Q: What sequence folds into this?
């Protein structure tokens, strides 16, 4: 029978994880409780982060960066006025997760820790150059989002560590957005695209979701595209670079082939959406 | 049988003690522990919405909520909405519009709608669909449910 | 309510609220999972991990020793009885062999559901794996492993022609197809595949059984027919039907999935073994894996017409994946073939099909039962011919449609037909321009569907105070049959609706009802209700004649439930009449009627019919549907912008409930057309959850679904009514496919029309 523990501090939570190596930290529960209900979790302990102060909400740091507590619910992220410009992509992604009821429960930390390749946050955070903060028995460490997913459902988060916060760079004035293709409203993505204009309006940051174990970004290709956003050939070449990095699977949401076909189409679509902003800039 | 945990819940305005498995979901506790049966187990995966209840006024999935997290929060199920005039209006319009067919989704659907009208007294049809899209219905085709919520909103906030 | 309240007027034709609405909006309606009995145990199922394997033995030691466990049932406990609607080929629980992944192989009763589920995992079953058949083609192969070794010995209720893995075959033929092609100027031909669709009623299946001191069983379950439950449990467990009472709580919808058995036989076997009440509620995943689903079809169809568009000939061949057991499959295939010509005059028709056992869950009835699958092919071919001969879609259909007095394929007469009016309203409504100015991507389809089929009955009793009890045995699955039947009863008796109480179906007290299926309750049971209510009126008249000392011819039935002398003000209330009947003379007033639909399907003088599972089928409802779709140029995903659904239901006893049938049918059909698909990874279902199997949400459905009720009264129907439950689903796949063809220029032969398929069609990568 699984016990649920409620530490009051992060240090207590880390200590409890050390005491119960097979225990699982639990955030909003939207994924982990569903797995428990399906008989897929048999940990002796669940360590709830529910009562730990300071894990909820988005705050602006002194240097302008934004710190999103791991226990910040999707609904709060989707409604946050702090997420503007280049960070709008994160807000938009939050608003497209599942449905309103699930957004009242699920948290950014829980979603990122679960690392479902088809979930919405990872590409948005990759596009935003987020940094993940972990706390473990060896202390705190930061991991850039692009170093986070290592294989299918395998991440840099070590056993005994807790994801405590997601830090986003200070928002730039440039526009950003998120689009996903899904079978029905609220489904996980068949393929998704997070895109932000660079501050100078001349380049892009693009991350593709659901087409490999983790979000796909290519900084070299982004650099090559810089200054050539209106060159269809250059955009096509850029898209081809991301397609080359993709490693999609066939599943019930679509074939690998379909996902590869969607990548350049999504890039063209989202770029066109950002275009009016580019023109205005 | 393994040792049960004792929880004190504020359910429909009353403090209620219940002994359940320590990791029991709120849905298990309500249905098996307390005989509160309006939340339904449609999927137990948080997709269908038939178990939707209000916690501090917000609709959540009872099947994805650990009971242990619910102490100290205001829990509402349809059983506790009898004296709520907004719910009474929603219910009447659901009946009149034909939004009730098999009824299995109805409590969850109405609780989501109740929260929507608290946040947005005169929602557009699109807003209704967005707020209720996490509550699946396989009978009505949804149209009459959207009608019911909009008609109730119009009556409550002319 | 006051017994003196004036009669509110006629209720037939009025959109009265459903009689079960209030308890449902208040969260008080009780479904199977909400029922509890003293001392009740909870049951759970162990599912087969193999598609085809011999069961060599069970080791129950660990499971029996597990906390809370009271009893375990396996195939060793259920005897050799077999059940089945058409072919009795299915045990209560796997016995000797397992036939599909997910098939119940053992069941545990324990104090809690969690304990029962935990104990299931401790059961050890020794298997010898056998080669599996995973497609109908594989099943027909010469060296295919045989799934039912004793098929020849099974009881069959029709000429099935079973052999090898062929469960049944049906062939229907009228005219001379082979020579007719020469008369055709235009011929279209194609192969089509349709996918398995899951019913996804929001309530998963469940049952609760208890046994009394005499060994008699009481069984509550989620069902579409308490009588089919009774028959299936008794056949599979070898019980006399008098030893089992089958009841129903409220049902959280059924679309065919709850018509034939799910876990009722296992639940009864557990209760008998445990000698305690046992409740079993399936998880959603189990419901996906072990109940039933809509058949995947392979359809080959060829249609020919003259240069002016007059249809001459059609041939249709279907190949159905039956799954492991026959269930309703022979009926689905036979019905699909009957419907394969559509509502058209086609003088030369041939339709034939093969139904093949495979190692998958049983496929069975699902709203429309076979009609949508053949319609997907047929309505596209009608459009293709129209294009070739230069007719528009409406003109093509008007030119060829069946009329009143015509004969349906192989023989049924059509007494009422409002199809022309359905086409008129859809054409007129859809001719309006779109608000955004974009030309419409319009697709049209028409359909017909039967209502009738098999036996039914009604008992109407006048209570002492003159109020009414109506008992039909028809399970209301949420669609509102309790309300509609009460309306018919109230109308015939001229009493207010709230004076008619509707009894819950109970095999101990209700007259037989085959089931709430095939759009039949309003039409078939409604006829019995009307006749039973009329019998009550007649008896009340007899009393009144004696009480008022006048001939019956001088009496009239008056609104409010009164009988008086024509031309005189004084009258008798039903309370006065019923009081006399109960206490003084004649005995309590009961009206009863039973009937079976008995118009033959097949006219041997005009057609050949081999292996026809439904020899007496029903009367015809008609529908026309138009849709205007948007196709997303990026993803290929189709969405419906606007839809027009017109249905001839004879007479709408309750127009609101008919409208909701049309809306609900449209959205379920839209899910089938666009996104819903059960996918197998080898022998295992890859998406048995609502995370992975998606149905439309509120945001996936257009606001602008316009419904039109057309009333062309059916002479044999109660107040002219005929069925409305399926006619709004059937045409969706055809209308959407035709609209997608207009939008993209590509014809699609495979369902669902997913974004991927439509995009491939648009980019020339093949549909």
A:
């Amino acid at each position: 029978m699984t016990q649920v523990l409620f530490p009051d501090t992060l240090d207590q939570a880390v200590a409890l994880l050390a005491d119960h190596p097979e225990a699982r930290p639990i955030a909003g529960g939207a994924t982990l409780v569903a797995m428990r209900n399906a008989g897929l979790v048999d940990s002796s302990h669940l360590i709830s982060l529910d009562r730990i102060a300071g894990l909820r909400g988005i705050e602006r740091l002194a240097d302008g960066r934004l710190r999103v507590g791991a226990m910040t619910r999707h609904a709060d992220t989707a409604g946050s006025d702090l997420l503007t410009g280049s960070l709008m992509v994160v807000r938009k992604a939050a608003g497209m997760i599942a449905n309103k009821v699930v957004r009242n429960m699920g948290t950014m930390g829980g979603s990122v820790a679960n690392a479902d390749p088809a979930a919405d946050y990872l590409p948005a955070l990759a596009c935003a150059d987020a940094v993940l903060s972990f706390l473990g028995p060896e202390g705190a460490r930061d991991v850039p989002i692009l170093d986070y997913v290592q294989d299918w459902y395998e991440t840099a988060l070590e056993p005994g560590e807790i994801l405590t916060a997601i830090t986003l760079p200070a928002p730039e004035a440039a526009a950003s957005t998120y689009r996903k293709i899904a079978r029905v409203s609220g489904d996980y993505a068949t393929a998704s695209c997070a895109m932000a204009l660079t501050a100078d309006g001349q380049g892009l940051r693009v991350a593709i979701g659901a087409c490999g174990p983790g979000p796909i970004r290519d900084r070299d290709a982004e650099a090559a595209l810089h200054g050539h956003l209106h060159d269809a050939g250059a955009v096509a070449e850029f898209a081809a670079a991301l397609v080359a990095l993709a490693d999609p699977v066939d599943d019930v949401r679509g074939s690998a082939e379909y996902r590869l076909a969607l990548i350049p189409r999504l890039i063209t679509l989202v770029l066109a959406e950002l275009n009016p902003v580019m023109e205005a800039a | 049988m393994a040792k049960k945990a004792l929880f004190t819940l504020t359910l429909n305005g009353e403090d209620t003690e219940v002994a359940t498995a320590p990791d029991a979901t709120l849905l298990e506790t309500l249905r098996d522990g307390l005989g509160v049966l309006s939340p339904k187990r449609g999927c137990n995966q948080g997709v269908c919405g038939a178990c939707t209840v209000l916690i501090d006024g917000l609709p959540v999935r009872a099947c994805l909520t650990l009971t242990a997290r619910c102490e100290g929060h205001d829990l509402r199920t349809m059983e506790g909405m009898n004296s709520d005039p907004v719910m009474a209006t929603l219910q009447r319009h659901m009946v009149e519009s034909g939004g009730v067919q098999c009824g299995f989704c109805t409590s969850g659907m109405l609780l989501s709608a109740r929260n929507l009208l608290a946040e947005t007294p005169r929602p557009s049809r699109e807003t209704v669909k967005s707020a209720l899209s996490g509550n699946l219905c396989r009978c009505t085709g949804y149209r009459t449910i959207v009608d019911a919520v909009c008609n109730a909103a119009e009556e409550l906030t002319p | 309510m006051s017994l003196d309240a004036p009669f509110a007027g006629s209720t037939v034709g009025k959109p009265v609220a459903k009689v079960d609405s209030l308890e449902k909006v208040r969260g008080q309606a009780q479904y199977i999972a909400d029922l509890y009995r003293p001392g009740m145990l909870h049951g759970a199922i162990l599912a087969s991990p193999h598609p085809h394997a011999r069961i060599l033995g069970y080791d129950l030691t660990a499971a029996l020793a597990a906390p809370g466990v009271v009893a375990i049932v396996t195939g060793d406990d259920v005897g050799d009885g077999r059940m089945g609607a058409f072919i009795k080929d299915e045990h209560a629980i796997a016995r000797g062999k397992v036939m599909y992944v997910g098939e119940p192989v053992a069941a545990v009763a324990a104090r809690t559901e969690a304990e029962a589920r935990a104990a299931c995992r401790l059961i050890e079953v020794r298997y010898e794996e056998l080669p599996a058949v995973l497609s109908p083609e594989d099943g027909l192969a010469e060296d295919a492993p045989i799934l039912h070794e004793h098929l020849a010995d099974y009881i069959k209720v029709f000429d099935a022609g079973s052999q090898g893995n062929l469960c049944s075959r049906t062939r229907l033929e009228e005219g001379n197809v082979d020579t007719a092609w020469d008369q055709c100027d235009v011929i279209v031909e194609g192969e089509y595949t349709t996918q398995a669709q899951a019913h996804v009623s929001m309530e998963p299946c469940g049952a609760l059984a208890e046994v009394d001191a005499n060994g008699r069983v009481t069984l509550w379950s989620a069902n579409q027919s308490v009588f089919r439950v009774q028959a299936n449990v008794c056949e599979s467990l070898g019980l006399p039907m008098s030893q089992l009472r089958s009841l129903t709580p409220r049902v959280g919808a059924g679309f065919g999935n709850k018509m034939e058995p799910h876990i009722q036989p296992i639940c009864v076997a557990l209760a008998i073994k445990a000698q305690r009440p046992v409740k079993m509620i399936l998880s959603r995943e189990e419901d996906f894996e072990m109940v039933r689903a809509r058949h995947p079809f392979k359809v080959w169809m060829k249609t020919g017409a003259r240069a002016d568009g007059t249809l001459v000939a059609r041939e249709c061949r279907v190949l159905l994946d039956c799954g492991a057991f026959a269930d309703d499959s022979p009926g689905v295939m036979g019905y699909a073939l009957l419907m394969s010509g559509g509502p058209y005059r086609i003088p030369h028709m041939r339709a034939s099909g093969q139904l093949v056992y495979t190692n998958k869950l049983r496929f069975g009835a699902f709203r429309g039962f076979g009609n949508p699958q053949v319609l997907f092919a047929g309505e596209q071919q009608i459009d293709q011919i129209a294009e070739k001969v230069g007719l528009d879609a409406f003109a093509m259909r008007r030119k060829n449609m069946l009329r009143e007095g015509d004969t349906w394929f192989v023989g049924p007469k059509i007494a009422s037909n409002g199809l022309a009016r359905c086409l008129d309203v859809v054409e007129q409504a859809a001719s309006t321009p779109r608000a955004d100015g974009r030309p419409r991507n319009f697709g049209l389809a028409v359909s017909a569907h039967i209502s009738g089929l098999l036996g039914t009955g009604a008992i109407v009793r006048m209570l002492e105070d003159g109020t009414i009890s109506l008992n039909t045995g028809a399970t209301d699955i949420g669609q509102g049959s309790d309300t509609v039947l009460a309306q018919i009863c109230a109308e015939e008796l001229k009493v207010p609706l709230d004076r008619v109480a509707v009894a819950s179906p109970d095999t101990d007290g209700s007259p037989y009802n085959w089931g709430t299926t095939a759009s039949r309750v309003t039409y078939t049971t409604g006829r019995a209700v009307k006749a039973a209510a009329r019998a009550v009126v007649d008896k009340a008249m007899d009393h009144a004649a004696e009480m008022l000392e006048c001939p019956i011819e001088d009496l009239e039935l008056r609104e409010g439930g009164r009988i008086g002398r024509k031309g005189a003000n004084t009258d008798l209330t039903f309370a006065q009449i019923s009081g006399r009947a109960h206490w003084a003379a004649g005995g309590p007033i009961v009206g009863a009627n039973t009937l079976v639909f008995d118009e033959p399907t097949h006219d041997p003088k005009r057609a050949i019919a081999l292996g026809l599972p439904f020899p007496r089928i029903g009367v015809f409802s008609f529908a026309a549907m138009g849709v205007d779709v948007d196709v997303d140029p990026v993803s290929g995903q189709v969405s419906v912008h606007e839809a027009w659904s017109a249905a001839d239901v004879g007479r709408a006893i309750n127009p609101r409930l008919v409208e909701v049938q049309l809306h609900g049918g449209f959205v379920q059909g839209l899910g089938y057309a666009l996104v819903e698909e059960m996918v197998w990874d080898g022998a295992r279902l890859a998406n048995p959850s609502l995370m992975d199997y998606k149905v439309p949400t509120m945001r996936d459905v257009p606001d602008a679904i316009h419904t039109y009720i057309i009333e062309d009264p059916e002479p044999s129907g109660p107040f002219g009514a005929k069925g409305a439950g399926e006619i709004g689903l059937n045409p969706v796949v055809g209308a959407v496919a035709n609209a997608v063809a207009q939008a993209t220029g590509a014809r699609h032969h495979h369902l669902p029309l997913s974004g991927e398929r439509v995009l491939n069609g648009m980019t020339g990568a093949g549909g």
Q: What stands out?
A: Chain C touches chain B through 64 residues (CB under 8 Å). Confidence is low (pLDDT under 50) at residues 1-7 of chain C.
